[in-house]
Every structure is written in C-alpha cells, then in structure tokens.
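Dear Dr. H.,

I hope your travels went smoothly. While you were away I took the liberty of generating a structure for the chain from your last submission, since the lab meeting agenda had it listed for discussion. I wanted you to have the full record in hand beforehand rather than looking at slides cold. The sequence, exactly as received, is reproduced here:
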Amino acid sequence: MNSKNKLKKLLIDIIIPVVIFALIGCALYIEQQGFRLPSNADESLLIDEDAWYAVQNPNAGAIASNAPKCLIVFDKNDDDSIALKNNIEYVLNSINVSTKTQEIEVPKEIIEDEEEMVLLQNTSATNTDRETYDFTKYDDIIFCLSDLTYLGVDYNAFSQWISSGGHAMFAMGIDPSDGFYQWKELLGISNQTIPELVEADSLRFKTSIMAGVEGKEFSDDVINCQVLDLKTTDDCIVHISTCDEIEVPLLWEKNFDNGKIIVCNAEMFESKSDRGIFTAAYCEFYPAYVYPVINSAVYCIDDCPAPAPAGYDNNVLSQYGYTVTDFITNVWMPAMQKISEEYGIKFTSFVIQSYENNVDGPFTNKDNIKTAKYYASLILNTGGEIGIHGYNHQPLVLEGFAYDKENSGYVVWPSIKKMLESINAVTKYTESLADDLYVQAYIAPSNVISTEALQALQSQFEDLRVYAGVYVGTPDQMVQEFTVLENGTVYCPRLTADMQMEDSEWWLQINELNYHYVESNFIHPDDILDEERSDGGDFSQMLLGYKEMIEWNQRYGLVTSTISECGAAVQRYFNLNYIQTLEGNNMNIEVDGLIDTAYMMLRLNGKKPISMSGGSYTKLSENVYVLKIDKKSVNIKLVDQ
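The corresponding predicted structure, in token form, is as follows:
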C-alpha cells in the first residue's frame, strides 16, 4: 500500500471518527452548560443583534409546569382594584408564578347626601346575591378588594383550605364593613368591634422581610392613606407598622397548621415602586423560593459633556467664587473623579452637543468640542461609557404631542427626518471625542420621546442597543420595564435621580434591590443650580447624600456597571426560564437560556444554605441570598434554623 493510501485509511479509520466524537462531546457540553460567548467575551458584554438571534431562548420567561398556581380576585368596577391586580399579576408572572384572575362585581348604590352624591358600597346583600368560584384548586389566592363581605368564598370552606396548606393574601387593605366580624379572627385581628379609620403617614419595618430595611423608617412621601386602627393577635408576625406610639400594624402574617394568611392594612402594593415589598410578602408563603434578578448599579450623568450655563450663579459664587463653568471644571468634575477612584464606580455620561433650540438644521455646532473631549477622557479613563442625550435638549416630538405640564415649554420638531439628522450629527460628534469611542446608549431629553420618534430611532440606528428611560414617570415620558426586544435591544430604565434622594426614591431603591436587584441613578453637572435637585444648594451636603447611596449599593453587593453593561445583565436576566423544586432541605434549580452567568434571588423562611453546586451564594440579609449561576443544573443544600 503506497503512502497516499495509508494516509487515506488513517484519515477514514481513526482521525475522522475522533473528530466526530470530539464534536459530539463539545455539543453535549454546550447543551449541558448553556451557550457560551467567545473566549474573549465576558458577562459584562452587550450581545449584538446577530449574536442575540443565536442565543435567544424561545422559552424565556415561560412559567414552569410545577410553578405555584395563584388566583387573583378583583373588583371589575373599581379602577384601584384593577390597577392593583395588574401590578400583582405582572410581578407574579415575572417570578415564575402561574396566575388566573377572577372578576367580582361589588354592588354599589348611590345615596344622596345634603351636600353631594356619595358612592357607597352596598353591604346589605345576602349570601345568595354574591358571586362564588372554586378557589380550592389553587395554591394561593390574592384578594385585590377591601370589602370582606364580597370575597366570593364560603368562610368555612376557606378556613379548611387554609388549614390544609392554602395561602391567602389580603392585598388592598380592609374596609370597615359588616364582613369584618366574620373574618377578623381568621385574619389575626383581636378587636371585638370595627376599629376606626386613622391616617397612616409613616411606616417602620419591624422584621427583615426585605434586604436593606434594617432601621428604616419612611414618611408621608411613601405612605399617606387611611387604615384601620386595629390590633393583631399574639400569633401574628407584624412586619410593618406606623412609626407613631400606636404602631398600627400595616403588614402581618398568621400561620396555620400548614397554610398562611398575609394581610396588608394599607395601600402598599399598588405601584411599580412597591414591587419589592409585594414580592417579599408573597415569598413568605414558601420555605424557599428563587427568581431571576439583574445585579447592576448604574451611575448616569446626564448633560455631560455639554456646554455649561454661562455666567454666575449667586449660590455657586458665594460658596466657591467661581462662574458656573469654572465650578463644573474645577469643583464638580474633580469631585466625581475622586468618587470614582474612592468607590471604584464607573460613570455613564450622555452628550448634549448644543443647547440652541435648532430643530431645522444644519446641526453643526461644535463650539464646546474642546471641553467635551477633556470631559470624555476623564469619563473613559475610569472605565466609563459615553452615550447620547441629543444634539440639543429638545425632546423628539412633533406638533400636537401631549406634554405633561411638568415637561412643557420645549420646541417641537418639524419632522421625523430632522430628528434623525440631529441624532446622526450628535452620534458622529460624540464618537469624535475619543479614539475607539462607540455609542450604544441613548436617553431622551427630559426622558420624553414620542412613539413614532422612538420607532424611527430603533429602525435607523441599529448601533443604539440600549435605551434608558425611567422606571416611574409622567405619561409623556419614556416609562419602561427592564426588558429586551426581539432583536436584542435593551430597555434599562433609571430608577432614581439627584445626589440627595427623597424618601420615595429610597423606597423605590429598596424595593428594586429586592425585586430586580438593580439600581440606576442619574445626576447633572448643574444640579446645584436647581433648588429642588440640590435640596438647598450646599454641594458638600449633596456629595454626602450621593456617597450614602453608593455605599448602600455596595453594602448589598450590586455590581458597578455602565449602562451597556447593565444592558448585558438585563439580556442574561431576560433570557432565563427555570424549574425549581424543593424536597425537604434539598433544592434543585434547572436553568434554561443560560448564556454564561446569571443571577437569582433566594428567599428562605426558617432555613439557611450550607452548600451549593452550579454556582455560589452571597447573603444579603437574614433570609435573603443572591445566587450567581454558572451551570445549567444547580443544587442547594439547606438546613432548618
């Protein structure tokens, strides 16, 4: 046999089978471990459109077959009840709970008062008038109505279901109706008569039901509603009360043989800002529960680089003796650099090219480019990112756009074409500020943009992969969820603003720590000029407030990220679906859609982890842990405590 034939035989008999087996082995490994990005990539990298189509999980967000089954009951004629139902249903679906809704029509009657027509709930109907439904096939039931007379369930059957392992939450407070007498004992209320309604304008955490609440109290900036001035029985665990001497219970739980009831005696679950406390309350139903989270802390600087306001400001002049421009250059920017070095954080800044109200073009103003290049170098040299805010600060809207009164006064654009020309100009301008500067992120001026403008940007500027609106805002603003579009474009809303946060912003931040495990804050170089944003204009106090927020984020382990790195984390969060099982003290999680690493939050009741395979865990508080997942199959060993 000549050498060529020998080589051919060797190729057929040995080498090709080895290669085939190697390829099969690689395929099996990838299947087992989840998709992996190229070796020069890491979990902080935003996935581009082509790669996203390759890794996209078609079952992302799918509810597991063994997920808890929850029935949400609401009053179809009550807007507040409907809004509460919608918020709760969204949260439950996002944490892998299967939901069904049940409409109830609470009868109403109009009673004529001497002064006005008052709408009152009619509590005189008999049992035969009330709607009923089968709740026993569900694991949980959540009532988004406050009149206990019209729950639509038989009291005795409901009590038996709870004792047998059912879970119930009364999520909308309690009305002083006749139904109170029948239900008060089951709900853990000790009052013999219907308590009076009192104003609740503060709240205090009495347990560690959420991470980050230790020692926290909140004012009427967070809660301001009427509640029943009631007392709970000794077998209840009160998680939240008012801060006054009376300490009215606002959120408590009562355990039964195998079941549990949770009662909210306030308006505490209605908005997006309340999703963390609702999630924490729901997870009290189970000894161990996990759900996906993002893990990111983003520090945005809007209007930077941007032309500084000209002239003097009396407050700045009295404190520092500088013009506004010199204050930003010599005081504000060095302070930000020092914070970046001290805390190891990375800023994401968003460029404004010019403050002229030019919406017709040409868009060529480069008067500030020298200063802009200097600021850009400072941001980039500390690992930061630069995105675009706009050619100018005029929101991308056309004539007839419905502005909220807080955001009115801007010039409208003559056409979508001119908007796109301006975005093209500011993108090129921004990318000229430094070598290898690549624009991926956009925020709208005043967080306002029209639907048609947003669609045009997403169609024409494929390199813009991250759109950062706001999580909570006015109807005209780009209010977003943390989500990923079909092509991999990411929405990363900002949560809080300013260096010194108000109570309502701290409330949102704590809730998002416990729901999404994320924070995104934005500030401006000229905040000191705004009395509301600066809280009086003392820059040293502003810095103290900003550092407090950063230290809090780092205390709870949030990963410092640029906005695009947060976008990468949202892609990994969004792509997951999973199945969790708990047998005794053995918890298993099977993860699908794992790209490289992902994060989940583990909430425990009466247990603690002692070991984990498939990842690692970090303790946030007494009962809350963050899991870093790097394998498709995860096992956690628990012990009772």
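Two observations you may find useful: The first helix runs from residue 3 to 33. The radius of gyration is 28 Å.

With kind regards,
E. W.
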